Amino acid sequence: MAFTAVGVKKHYPGVKALDGVDLEGYAGSVLGICGANGAGKSTFAKLLAGVETLTDGEITISGFPHPVRNAAEAERAGVLMMHQEPLIIDDFTVGENVWLYKLREGRDIRPWARKVDTNSAETREVLQGVGLGHLSTRQLARGLGPGQRQMLSLSRAAVTKHKIMILDETTASTSEEHFNDILRLVEREKNEGTSIIFVSHRLNEVFAMCDRIAVLRNGTLVKVLDAAETDPDEVTALMIGQALKALARPDPVHAAPDQVPALSVRDLHGGSANGVSFDVNPGEIVGLYGLVGSGRSSVARTITGQRPAAGGSIKLHGREVSLPNPTAAVAMGIAYLTEDRRLEGFVKDFDNGENMSLVALPTMAKAGVVDAKREKTRIRELISEYQVKGGTKTYTRNLSGGNQQKVVVAKWLETDPEFVVLDEPTKGIDVGARSNIYQIIHGVAARGKGILVVSSEAEELLSLCHRILVMRNGEIVAEFDPEHATTDDLVRTALTHEG
């Protein structure tokens, strides 16, 4: 037995995140923790790692003299937590980030201890083990993409003593080509006797990695299953209390010969995007697929004013627009849902109501004064419409990732934009909330709005979009009709431009 959790409870103001959970972890085994948004998955992980304090109950770790009470004790007991948002120091080199925990201990300044060489052959070997062997150990970490940052964080498992490793949605920021690196890392850890907890909404990854699956719903433990004796349908039904209905792909959009595109991009340069051209018609959902570094997010950020274009043109409903900053894009009716909701999607010190009305406040004001009654009424409607857990006064930062994303989606769609860019819209979101957001996207398209969905998940785009554009090395290299394409077609094209 690696750890035992008995009667674990965690309550926040207005939210019972966990309410009496009993769970065990075994050495050399992977325990998956699944559940819908707000089920308590990440809360349990944080309690085990001592990051959060228990409201009631206790967690004991084998070999440690008393129940864990804080992060320092959990670390001494041998718990290593890998967060969904990786701890990376931008002004440190890649090598220094690998050895971050060792450097923090101060051993490099103790004369009797071996100094850490952040540019050593060992460091390069560690990076090779997580698919980052091509990086220089001496380059600054600030230029790395989300997937690379997550893999860099995971590299610390090779240089940090531990007997329990928690992976809390760590695959949410990585794309498909890195998942095999994570699988190999987990297999090495299992062989060394580590107890691994894998918190994820991606059921295909849970079944590929886990020996047992614990399903949480509304803060309680529903069931612990042997992964070899169950299937995704059963787990999904346990997560949301019912079988999930498959969402039909949207009906085809047939543009008239003289129809003006909702958005027309020509020879766009910006970031790693290099001469990108495409159109999105009114009512059309276009997917933009690519692997890490392909330029997909550069396109999203450039056409929404997050970064200035270095060249090319952007037309909205046939009229060329200048988008030097996000404010200009919003004024033109272009909404952008960021890839990183925790950093850029909402204000951490605002509650749900304040975040949801933030962008749409001008529409609720007269002579510059906000109509408070109208605002409160609309916020209550949005909470119900988007099925957000918690009330209007619940801090958005205390919600699960999926509920946070619903708040962000509601905030932007409340502005009634002409064109919507969704960058990884379901990253870190469970199957139930994912279906809910897909329905919202379909509804926006049905109202004649143009939509660009940027994603590293091929399967998502195949089920959601009318057309899919594939990017590689900053360029669009192929276009697919989802009716006649497969995941393999998209991945192969993104990797090799063979299709």
From TrEMBL:
Transmembrane annotation, as ranges: none
Domain ABC transporter: 3-243, 258-498
Any single Pfam family the record assigns to this protein: ABC_tran
InterPro entries named among the record's database cross-references: AAA+_ATPase, ABC_carbohydrate_import_ATPase, ABC_transporter-like_ATP-bd, ABC_transporter-like_CS, P-loop_NTPase
Gene Ontology MF annotations: ATP binding; ATP hydrolysis activity
Protein name: Ribose transport system ATP-binding protein
Gene3D superfamilies referenced in this protein's UniProt entry, alphabetically: P-loop containing nucleotide triphosphate hydrolases
Record's keyword terms, sorted: ATP-binding, Nucleotide-binding, Repeat, Transport
Ribonucleoprotein in keyword set: no
Superkingdom: Bacteria
